[in-house]
Amino acid sequence: MLLTMKKLCLTILLALPLGAGAADLNNGQRLFGTRCASCHSVGPSARSGFGPQLNALFGRRAGSLPGYGYSAAMKRSNIVWSDKTLATFLDDPGDLVPGTKMRFWGAVVTPSQFRLLEGAQVLGEYRFHTRRDGHYFCRDCGINVFSTGESTAMGPFVAVTVASLDDAPVEELIAAPVRYFDGRNDNWTTPPAEVRHL
């Protein structure tokens, strides 16, 4: 079990463009904790929840773990998880498996509504696949803090990762408007028909 966790953390770390020399187990575990553990778990008590548990991932066919409700796209993908397939998937889930359920939870605002109050000096940036959108992360803790981009429907935007809103008062979060995007079908302009489960 520990070997699986070490290999998974190292693969996740190597899949993310964080610069040369960063590939060590501690960084991989930290990145798993800040980027993956909110949906996935590993270890003796791992259970599927929002995402499937990842024990014995390498060598497993994608969409085959009993008890988890995979998207039809993932079940049909014929992917067998390895270092290479996981790195490719993490680089752009929707490109490798169009229709995947992999989610990004963000509060989307216009650039004029966004102010970074502090921490600019510890931000790193990465871009993947089309390199169109910028994804900014804290170099100290590894969490993706916000992303920037432009879409035909919304124009320029900043998507603040909900996981980084720790200090926001609960009342503010509850009162904020919620918009749904159909990322499962790579449709970022029309909300999904069913949102009660979101």
Q: What features would you describe in this structure?
A:
There is one protein chain. This protein is an alpha+beta fold and 198 residues long. Helices cover 25% and strands 14% of the residues. It contains six helices and five strands, in the order H-H-H-H-H-E-E-E-E-E-H. The chain has helices spanning 2-15, 25-36, 72-76, 83-91, 93-96, 170-175; strands at residues 106-109, 123-126, 134-138, 144-151, 155-161. A five-stranded antiparallel sheet has the order 1-5-4-3-2, with no helix packed on it. A hairpin with a 7-residue loop joins strand 2 and strand 3. It starts with a helix and ends in a 23-residue tail after the last helix. Residues 1-22 have low confidence and may be disordered.
List keywords for this structure.
single chain; 198 residues; alpha+beta; Cytochrome Bc1 Complex, Chain D, domain 2; Metal Binding Protein, Guanine Nucleotide Exchange Factor, Chain A; 6 helices; 25% helix; globular; disordered N terminus
User: Main sheet: which strands, in order across?
Assistant: 1-5-4-3-2
> What's the CATH H-level superfamily name of the largest domain?
Cytochrome c-like domain
β content, as a range? 5-15%
Query: What is the ordering of alpha helices and beta strands?
Result: HHHHHEEEEEH
Number of helices: 6
Rounded to an integer, what's the Rg over CA atoms? Answer: 17 Å
**Largest β-sheet summary:** 5 strands, antiparallel
